[in-house]
Amino acid sequence: MSLIISSNFAASYAARNLEINNDKLTNSLNKLSSGHRIIRPNDDAGGMAVQLKMNAAIHRGFAAKNNIQNAISLLQTQDGVLQTATAVVDRIGELKAMSNDPTKNSTDLQNYNEEYQVLRDQLNDLQFERFNGISMFNTSQGSADGTKEGVFKVWTTDQGDINTATQVGPSVTITGVFLASGGNTTANVHYSLKSDFKGPVTSQSAGGIASSSLSMDAILSDLQNLANARAVNGALQSRFGFAYDQASITKSNMEAARSRIIDVDIAEESTNFARVNILTQASASVLAQANQTSQTALRLLMA
């Protein structure tokens, strides 16, 4: 084999191997320190793209879970108002029953009527209750199209409000509930709030609580409407509960799928790190030896 000093191919080859092994060693250290299998896009270009989409879906799923919880809180608050309204109408029924007592004179009736009138005002006030500045009850007639107060459409998955020719994002609509506005809905407290029943008692058969138009059947109808509204409210809370469970399961499974793509196997990568570390040290040692080969030719010249 000829001896030359202008070029050292063995050293160049060893240096190249050292560079490659050192790059692998650095990449392995980055993976172990970060816990990620994909550090650079060229580690797994396809996997990088997939996990980015999954990560975005996970974040949207977290937001969907919060939206569902907020909707449940709204319904619970709304049910509290309906419960209060039921107690008020129940008391109005009690006052009506006492006003039917023939032994009561007009002064007695007026005393009952005073309480009845303030209870009417309280029922009217309840319909304007708000949740975080948002009306919980529909205070105007109209379709439940999401543009009216008290109508809510809650998207229950990470798909959100997607709407294509083949797919519509899953959602739950909380329809507008008229509490005490005289509207034609399930919670319609109508009879107890009619304008005919406002004013002083003039006799045992007219005015306020003593009005013959305010029958016990009418009050019982109000109570039935409130009971129906609470039943619908409870059904929606139940549905949102299942929607929340499904959103949680989907989010967990999505995180597991993303983990299989992006997260590093510590045991496997530790083995790879040890192998690459040995190769790097071996390459450095060989390079040092290769750099000595030119010394042989130099000694011939000095002989």
Q: Mean pLDDT across all residues, rounded?
A: 86
- Taking all Cα atoms into account, the compactness measure Rg is 39 Å
CA-CA gap between termini: 19 Å
What general form does the structure show?
A: rod-shaped
Per DSSP, the total helix count is: 6
Task: Indicate the topology.
Blueprint: H1 9-34, H2 45-99, H3 106-126, E1 130-131, E2 134-135, E3 152-155, E4 171-174, H4 216-262, H5 266-290, H6 293-302
Helix pairs in contact: 1-5, 2-3, 2-4
Describe this structure in words.
The protein has helices spanning 9-34, 45-99, 106-126, 216-262, 266-290, 293-302, and strands spanning 130-131, 134-135, 152-155, 171-174. It is mostly helical. It has a two-stranded antiparallel sheet. It has a two-stranded antiparallel ribbon with strand order 3-4. A hairpin with a 2-residue loop joins strand 1 and strand 2 (134-135). Helix 1 (9-34) packs antiparallel against helix 5 (266-290), helix 2 (45-99) runs antiparallel to helix 3 and helix 2 runs antiparallel to helix 4 (216-262). The protein is rod-shaped, with a radius of gyration of 39 Å. The chain starts with 8 loop residues before the first helix and ends with a helix. The model has no long low-confidence stretch (mean pLDDT 86).
Short descriptors:
single chain, mainly alpha, 6 helices, 4% strand, rod-shaped
Write a compact overview of the structure shown:
By secondary structure, this protein is mostly helical.
